[in-house]
């Protein structure tokens, strides 16, 4: 006998809405979303400025691997983001909504 799947036939947004009711899932989802947005923003700004990973690392006075972590959505520090902002002529602003 097949198991009943309560999500069968529902849209992803309906599924996500239901899952976000779980506080632990919500925390992890929001953390992952923030990491993705940070990586996307870093890549976009670097591209706009015409900066390669190597050039950006030199401007930030950090390693190439640190810059790659910023660009690939891995855990990053506020300090690293502040160095990135300074190296690209941007201002770092953090909001908690």
What does this molecule look like?
By secondary structure, the chain is mainly alpha-helical. 64% of the residues lie in helices and 0% in strands. It is built from five helices and no strands. The longest helix has 27 residues, at 23-49. The radius of gyration is 18 Å and the shape is elongated. 10% of the residues are buried.
Q: What is the structure about, briefly put?
A:
The chain has 97 residues and is an all-alpha fold.
Order of helices and strands: HHHHH
Based on CA inertia axes, which overall geometry fits?
Answer: elongated
Instruction: Compute the number of helices.
Output: 5
Q: Mean pLDDT, nearest integer?
A: 88
Q: Distance between termini?
A: 46 Å
DSSP strand (E) fraction?
under 5%
User: Biggest β-sheet, characterized?
Assistant: none
Tally of DSSP β-strands: 0
Percent helix: 55-70%
Structural class: mainly alpha
Low confidence ranges: none
Rg estimate, integer Å: 18 Å
List keywords for this structure.
mainly alpha, 5 helices, 97 residues
Please describe the topology of this protein:
Elements: H1 12-19, H2 23-49, H3 53-60, H4 64-71, H5 78-88
